[in-house]
Amino acid sequence: MTDSLHINQHPGIKPPSFECKIINSEIIDNQCWVEFDQTYYYPSGGGQPADHGSINGESGNFHISDVRKRTEIKHLLSGDELNSNSLVNQSFIANIDHERRNQLCRMHTAQHLISATADELYGARTVGNQINTEKTRIDLGMESRDAFSKDELQSAVNSYIDSSIDVSMSFRDRVELLEDPLVRVNMDLLPKNIDNLRVITIEGIDICPCAGTHVGNTNEIGHIEISKVKSKGAGKLRVEYHLLN
Ligand SMILES: [Zn+2]
Asked: What total number of domains does the chain contain?
């Protein structure tokens, strides 16, 4: 198993460079995927896209443009002429694209906050989301959109952002979470075999089991703007937002 680290990440702080050795490589559809002895790259999952970055070493300089978790964490390489077999056992210094990571941390934490606020205001539970650097969408389960107000949701979220509320990561027991009113997700959808779950807490507002990366305080998100709202069939409303700075 490779080691991975998915921490809360404050914007402006650069994720650390780290040494890694390629321990496995394979070509899939003409693309070279490699596995490291340790990695801090975030693999796509839970609606959050993968980290990007680069690795540099005596055997070449390569970009990492995708990271996926199958049984192990695989990194997609491009760049200097690739000879995948000769890369195994080679050492590199890895860097994570910190601007992209920070943007995704802010977008992702905003998603938790918007989902929690929509539940608070309208009893609308989040049924899906797709986070990205430029814009993010959240699908809300809502029987009727009559009660929904884009301006109301946006200003409630921005007011939480301005209140500088701490965001923290911890591990909590499943049974404990089942009884916590701040947990708004359907716990039945989470793998039954995990008793101790990684949760992200926005103090006093929301507790959400999540493996993604987030900021440490709501004020690091900056204001959001809801740019689009549309119905996606019966009982589903799609909200699209972006960050204002
Ligand atoms: Zn999250």
From this structure: 2
Euclidean distance between CA atoms 93 and 52, whole angstroms: 14
Beginning with the edge strand found earlier in the chain, give each strand of the sheet holding 196-202 in spatial order. 167-173, 196-202, 206-209
Dihedral sign (CA 210, 213, 216, 217): negative
Looking at the fold, whether 90 and 118 belong to one and the same domain comes out as no
Within 10 A of 27 (CB to CB), how many other CB atoms are there?
11
- Decide: 129 and 104 in contact? Cβ < 8 Å: no
Q: What spacing in Å lies between the alpha carbon of 147 and ligand 1's midpoint?
A: 27
Please provide the DSSP assignment of 35-84 as one string. EESB--PPPSBTTBPPP-EEEEETTEEEEEEEEEESSSEEEEEEES---H
- What is the pTM for the complete model shown? 0.90
- Ligand 1: centre distance to CA 163 (Å): 20
Number of neighbours of residue 159 by Cβ within 10 angstroms: 12
Between CA 13 and CA 45 the distance in angstroms is: 23
Q: Which two tokens stand for residue 35?
A: 């596995």
> Looking at the structure, do residues 70 and 107 belong to the same domain, yes or no?
no
pLDDT in tens, 196-239: 999 999 999 999 999 889 999 999 999 999 999 999 888 999 99
Could you tell me if 63 and 73 are in contact, meaning their C-beta atoms sit under 8 angstroms apart? Answer: no
What is the whole-number distance in angstroms between the Cα of residue 129 and the centre of ligand 1? 11
